[in-house]
Amino acid sequence: MIALNGSQTLANLPLDQAIEAIEKAMILYDSKKTITPQRHILATAYGPTIFMPSILNHDRSSHEEPTEQSIGIKVVSVRPENKVASVPAVIMLMNTETGLPKLLFNATDSTAIRTACCSAVASKYLARKESSVLTVLGCGQQGKYHVLTCCLTCENIDTVILWNRSESRAVQLLNELVGNSFGQSLELPFQFASEESDGATTSNNKRVIRVRVMRDANEAVRTADILCTCTNTNKPLFDGKNVKSGAHINCIGSYKHDMQEVDSDLVARSRMVADDSESVWKEAGDVNIPLDQGLITRQHILLDNMGQLNEQSAKSIVRVNYDSDITMFKCVGMAAQDIAIADVVWRNIQLSDRSQMQTVDIQ
Which residue, among 156, 166, 157, 113, has the nearest Cα to 135 in the 3D structure? Predict the structure, then answer.
């Protein structure tokens, strides 16, 4: 079994491959080609630990080949008092034939990446093609990877607006983006620059994306073509009336019944898609609070899951009025996405120098 730390995991997880893997995994999920039970939560005296197993049955290239399967589990704990990592997570990928573990890796960053990849896929189909302004509320790991994946997927983004309750955190992310110090091995087709920089392209002809920090959340969302809410707030941090017609929102921070990142009126006037509607209705306050208020019904989420999202469904079911509809993607995450990410890591390990990787013989 190969064991990877966080930096080794990132080195084997290019974002473009991760985005593609997430989209394919959700199509498999919609086609009933995964076994993905609801997560199991065990309470401890220090916080919950969550077990998330899944099997992916990959499509065969020919009928003569046996079905390729990926089987694994993510274990994530919530430990608010843990000074080292408040939400530690690991993923274990198994050898399907022998049942033995073949890969174990730190999944703290990969969890943020898989969620951001889901938002990127949703933005690809639901955001207007000419979208140029990306606003991100919440500048932690989720916020960082949402910037990167959405800029990869939506090629007309030329401005990124950052907001965080602690302004220093937003400034830190700006400096990280502009300094290209986010530790990804991927060669990005763009480069971030502060507002004060000159030029629309760099010397290597990469497009330049301007990044700025705003202090007021309501001002930050006014011009957003794509809005990503990546906070852990219990109450909305901005007035939904400030979101302009035609905008797309990725709402990923709230994950409990009493948590609400976006106000009920904004949810009610949006055209909504979820990564998995069943899980979202079970967990997310962003839909259950307006449901309890009588502002929406259970038909408000327009597709069963994001595996049904494509160019055709986006136009005929979700964004019916291209210019005026506000679209919203709600994501709570699932194990099938995590195992798809683990597959990407495993494939890239096969092409990597393993001399610096830890190998554990457990037989």
Answer: 157
Cα–Cα distance for residue pair 212/194, rounded to 1 Å = 6
pLDDT of residue 351: 83
Q: Per CATH, which fold does 2-110+335-359 belong to?
A: ornithine cyclodeaminase, domain 1 (3.30.1780)
With the C-alpha atoms ordered 264, 144, 115, 335, is the resulting torsion angle positive or negative?
A: negative
Enclosing H/E stretch for 68: strand 68-77
Cβ neighbours of residue 76 under 8 Å, at least 6 residues apart?
A: 49, 50, 52, 87, 88, 89, 107, 111
**What's the CA gap between 37 and 160, in Å, rounded?**
37
**Helices 141-153, 108-126: inter-axial angle, 10-degree rounding:** 40
Beta strand pairing call for 358-359 and 326-330:
unpaired
* Distance in angstroms (rounded) separating the CA atoms of residues 119 and 160: 16
Asked if residue 74 lies in contact with residue 52, where contact means CB atoms within 8 angstroms, the answer is yes
56 CB burial (10 A radius; 0-12, 13-18, 19+): buried
The pLDDT value recorded for residue 352 is 73
Q: What is the mean pLDDT of each run of 10 residues along the chain (363 residues)?
A: 90 94 95 92 92 86 61 92 85 93 93 96 96 96 95 96 96 93 70 77 77 97 97 93 97 84 96 95 92 96 95 91 93 95 94 72 67
Rounded-to-integer distance, Cα 159 and Cα 195, Å = 9
pLDDT at res. 65: 47
Question: The whole model's pTM is what?
Answer: 0.92
Q: Check residue 239 and give its pLDDT.
A: 97
Which H or E run contains 251? Answer: strand 248-251
Domain residues of the chain, as ranges? 2-110+335-359, 125-330
3-state secondary structure of 195: coil
Are 2-110+335-359 and 125-330 in the same CATH fold?
no
pLDDT value at residue 188: 84
Which residue carries 């306050």 as its tokens? 285
DSSP state of 162: E
Q: What CATH architecture applies to the domain 125-330?
A: 3-Layer(aba) Sandwich (3.40)
